[in-house]
Amino acid sequence: MTTPTIGQMLDSTVPMAHTLKLEYLETTPERAVLRLPDQPAYHNHVGGPHAGAMFTLAESASGCIVLAAFGDQLSRAVPLAVNAEIAYKKLAMGEVTATALLGRPAAEVVAELDAGGRPEFPVTVEITRADGAVTGVMTVTWTLRPNS
């Protein structure tokens, strides 16, 4: 039996990510990079990716880094998004890429969980166009809720 990749795990547990046909370019505990292909079905009124599709792309990138960093904790805690904030900076056209970075060291988060806490940690995500221009920035605060 083959162990599923982070992208396969997300696609199977989050149908919206699968629906958007997100491409998983990198999924490590330090960084996750996902791309939303240019798809007319998900365009907005100006011909670029809809804000909702970009939000889902960025939130999915944050979820990938959480799974990569804390997948070994899933037997004792469930990761949950606590809140998310996004700022749209420039017009996005064509394919867009989201790059997520963990905002706290994973070992620090796990130590807080080990001590009986419910750790919260930020994941920052930059959304860029193919030309490298930053079109959006998102911060998602996640928690690891202990199973009780």
TrEMBL record:
<protein>
    <submittedName>
        <fullName>DUF4442 domain-containing protein</fullName>
    </submittedName>
</protein>
<dbReference type="Pfam" id="PF14539">
    <property type="entry name" value="DUF4442"/>
</dbReference>
<dbReference type="InterPro" id="IPR027961">
    <property type="entry name" value="DUF4442"/>
</dbReference>
<dbReference type="InterPro" id="IPR029069">
    <property type="entry name" value="HotDog_dom_sf"/>
</dbReference>
